[in-house]
Automatic annotation (TrEMBL):
This is NAD-dependent epimerase/dehydratase family protein. Pfam families: Epimerase. Belongs to the NAD(P)-dependent epimerase/dehydratase family. Residues 6-222 form the NAD-dependent epimerase/dehydratase domain.
């Protein structure tokens, strides 16, 4: 990455912080565009503001930038159902604006954080990049639209554009989130249980955030244009995830089975062959990765206990 100057939108988020660190460690200069300054990486340049504002976009995308990693988005499926127009504006309109600024500034490389939700529910079928796009939610539709924009800019302007489709991401730094892994960690820390939808046989591919960063750097180095799935390549059931969390934390974590949510996908099983062919190699197994997340949650509990004793 020596000589590269990368704009990372959403670089202060859970995934963004890890990617920014990986870029800087690889020798790249980095500019972060986010609503907040990048306090975790004070050496990087920053553009602070809302990317809905054309002035913020113009300040972020300048000719010295050699490429863009676009992470900033609204990612809640439920939020997209409640506010489809707002999520479209945040995901599609901003992406279109950044792409066109990149074209005009001569920034020829653009990587997008996408999702396997662009293909909808394919049942037990292994998901690969050539499955037709059939999103079932406004969120999935916005990411499918962004992928089409990338393809159009690659075809018309010879830009290198890559949609990196991500599976379920976990890792340190997600204490504020409400996805299943942090719920498991909070339950272990607080001596409580978790609710599992249905019988827990749903299958998911969980990928560590550090492997996600490796995936983006691989896509960048390969100059690949198109879509590529980045995951662990191994799907586990929710029940297996609970057992892995019990082993990683050493806690019981009781489970309460509740009725399944309508429309929940029974399986997310992905084929990462294309990413592997580009040089991507996931390194962190599930239990090892969960142990790292647990260390953070257990540490926060210990700090709270120390603080309580000092008062």
């Amino acid at each position: 990455m020596q000589g590269e100057y990368v704009l990372v939108t959403g670089g202060c988020g859970f995934v963004g912080r890890t990617i920014v660190r990986a870029l800087t460690e690889a020798g790249a200069r980095v500019r972060v565009a986010d609503l907040t300054p990048p306090s975790a990486h004070p050496a990087v340049d920053s553009v602070v503001g809302d990317l809905h504002d054309p002035r913020i976009q113009a300040a972020a995308v300048t000719p010295e930038v050699t490429g863009i990693i676009h992470l900033a988005a609204r990612t809640s499926v439920l939020e997209s159902v409640a506010d489809p127009a707002g999520v479209h504006a945040a995901n599609v309109t901003i992406t279109a604006g950044l792409l066109d600024l990149a074209r005009r500034a001569g920034v020829s490389r653009f990587l997008l954080a996408s999702t396997n939700a662009v293909v909808g529910d394919v049942g037990e079928t292994r998901i690969h990049e050539d499955i037709p796009l059939r999103p079932l939610t406004p969120y999935g539709a916005t990411k499918a639209a962004c992928e089409m924009l990338l393809a159009g800019y690659a075809g018309s302007y010879s830009m290198t554009t890559c949609a990196v489709r991500l599976t379920n991401i976990y890792g340190p730094g997600m204490a504020h989130k409400d996805s299943f892994v942090p719920r498991l960690m909070r339950a272990a820390r607080d001596g409580e249980g978790v609710s599992v939808y249905g019988d827990g046989s749903q299958r998911r591919d969980l990928v560590h955030v550090e492997d996600v960063a490796r995936g983006f750097l691989t896509a960048w180095a390969s100059r690949f244009t198109g879509s590529v799935i980045v995951g662990s390549g191994r799907s586990v059931t929710v029940n297996e995830l609970v057992e892995a969390a019990r082993r990683a934390t050493g806690r019981l974590i009781p489970v309460d089975h509740v009725p399944a949510k309508q429309g929940e996908m029974p399986a997310v099983v992905v084929d990462i062959s294309r990413a592997l062919s580009l040089g991507y190699r996931p390194r962190l197994g599930l239990e090892e990765g969960l142990a790292g997340v647990w260390k953070e949650f257990a540490g926060s509990a210990a700090e709270a206990g120390t603080a309580g004793g000092e008062q």
